Amino acid sequence: MVDDETTRWFAGVDWGSERHHACLLDAAGKVVGERAYAHGGAGLAALCDWLASVAGDPGAVAVAIEVPHGPVVDALLDRGFAVYAINPKQLERLRDRFSVAGAKDDRRDARVAASGVRTDPQLFRPVRAGDPAIVELREWSRLAEELQGERVRLANRVRQQLWRYYPQLLELADDVAAEWVLALWEMAPTPAEATRLGEANVAELLRRHRVRRLDAEAALGVLRQPAIKVAAGVAGAAVLHLRSLVARLRLANEEFRRAERTLERLCAALTESASAAEGGNPGDAAILSSLPGVGTVTLAALLTEAAGPIARRDHAALRTLSGVAPVTKRSGKTCVVTMRYAAQDRLRQAVFHWARVAVQHDPKSRGRYEALRARGHSYGRALRGVADRLLGVACAMLRRRVLFDPDHGAAKAV
Description:
This protein is of the alpha/beta class.
């Protein structure tokens, strides 16, 4: 919320890839000035200098912007300005107060943002400078997700090439991105070479990669099945393509493993440092990780994508941001409740996965899930109900600074 006692100036910034438009209003809503600055170190410094020269004290300026992150936000926070973010859809609704015809330009958007933060401060969220540890964790968390997507894309392309001439190899494993599958393909890239492959070599490969569900004899039996008859040159072309794909897939595997190790290290460091800072009491990371179903990936997503609501212990904001809270449309005698689609995608996926795992390991979550299913709710709706309960439990634990107790609320034995 904007501090009415200290804020005397209201600015709006419409950011762009090349130029940023700014508009400054006084307390009465009068336009003091409108400027445009090129994106870059000099341009952002000039923007901050102009606002500070007019207002005098950067802390007396409330700056409204659509996105809560990025170089513009970082530059403003570094200079001491109070920055507030707003959802782009809300800003679009505010634009109708200036032009019902739907007119839009960057200069007008900057003025709409400045006017909005002056008249409707409750719509804006304060932006705080991020903790460097959380910033690093967020980058590694997003990088791990990006690398996982890259692995899936490359694995699908590998599977398509093997389907052309070597489907036997696909029968050995569902995950063709596994290192042992790639190594086995390099040992025998064609069905013809599989017939000459030694059993001892395959056994050593399986032992080295700790593959126990399959032995060398069974693997060779699959690889030596009758091959597909293909036109001349097809197998050679597929092998040529696969060599490039395998090289890229191995690099993605290596980078993904590195990202996983780094995420584990950063989460552990956050848990220890937060606990030390709280005088021995568990920190946010330790409390969240104690909940059933919360692993490293989910913990990283919660700490980074929902840092603000978690710091405020804001259950309502967490429900909305993760897509757990439904959308109710009521008019007259009509009432429709639908799933919320306007949510943070990474947080939505993390909370959904959290609920899915909690149902498997936590009896109370399992009971909640089964009750919702018995009432006729779908699989997804039931998991969102479980996630809603878990978010409420998490906020209660964070307020009380306690770890999860699976026996909480159970009758004490006399």
